[in-house]
Amino acid sequence: MGKVNTVLGPVATEDLGIIAVHEHIGFGLPGCDLDTQWWKKPEEAFEVTIEKLRRFREHGGKTFVDCTGIGNGRDVEYFQVLSRRTGVHIISVTGFVAGDSALPYFREKSEDYLMDLFIHEITVGIDGTGAKAGAIKVGVSRGGKLSELDKRIYRAAARAALKTGVPIITHLCVDAETAIAIFDEEGLPLDRVLMGHADDGGYLNEDRDTLIAEHGGWVGFDTIGYDSEMEGAPYWSRPRQDRVEHFLRFLDKGFVDVALISADANCCALGWPGLKGHSVNYLFEEFLPDLRKAGVGEEVIEQLLVHNPTKFLTMQEPQDLKPSLGRTKQESR
């Protein structure tokens, strides 16, 4: 029997049910809480968030992975209240969405410091709450290439993942070759990594998706619902049917075993308007009907929503490996 850390304590993997593997209660850049243009009263934000989580539960959703990193609006005490009120398991993460959004305090810290920080939040708890992180967030800074700070964070995350057994979730999968090389050098098998946002309209590359999958990594189609047809769609949006066809091509290549889906939606966005009408529930109300219409069977849908994310999130036996013990590519698969 495996387990996963949630904000209310460890949960057995068989109790995770349907999982949204890359979502946000509320994401914003550092300082977003002071931006009065998009500020909402706490009562209003709570009401909106509760409604979306309860609808998620009505659709059969049981586990919600909040991928909001340190300094981006992560509020574990709030998550605990929401989880108790809705019955939804909420998994919080340690780490950073990317180096360029990390608070200045952390930008000059060493790999060992960052590793220890991540390990503390996974094994001891976050912000004195006792709630332990269930995954590590890393990401690519603006520009499409891993920065020096990004690389430090990736190495620290890989070492922390080995020592704690939790997986890594990336923001964007651009510069995948560099990321794969780092994880390889650190001895982290790529099946412990979700390379996210493969469906992001600004960074499409199907050869890259294939590369990640062939190395044993998880490929996230997890900006689902950012459709260019929607009013106010952000720059990373794309046509709805284009995304569906992209995903179907990925499945047709035989990669259903490493595919993960999510909406990357905010229950209540912080410091920006978000996308009106977009929530985690887009998965059930729009995307899954599109897949069924295209002939995708219920067994595949269950694999995408239950079996794949459960396998990915389940904590593994920790390994006390030193960086010098990196594996070869063949050994990492």
UniProtKB/TrEMBL annotation:
<dbReference type="InterPro" id="IPR032466">
    <property type="entry name" value="Metal_Hydrolase"/>
</dbReference>
<comment type="similarity">
    <text>Belongs to the metallo-dependent hydrolases superfamily. Phosphotriesterase family.</text>
</comment>
<dbReference type="InterPro" id="IPR001559">
    <property type="entry name" value="Phosphotriesterase"/>
</dbReference>
<feature type="modified residue" description="N6-carboxylysine">
    <location>
        <position position="137"/>
    </location>
</feature>
<protein>
    <submittedName>
        <fullName>Phosphotriesterase</fullName>
    </submittedName>
</protein>
<dbReference type="Pfam" id="PF02126">
    <property type="entry name" value="PTE"/>
</dbReference>
<keyword id="KW-0479">Metal-binding</keyword>
<keyword id="KW-0378">Hydrolase</keyword>
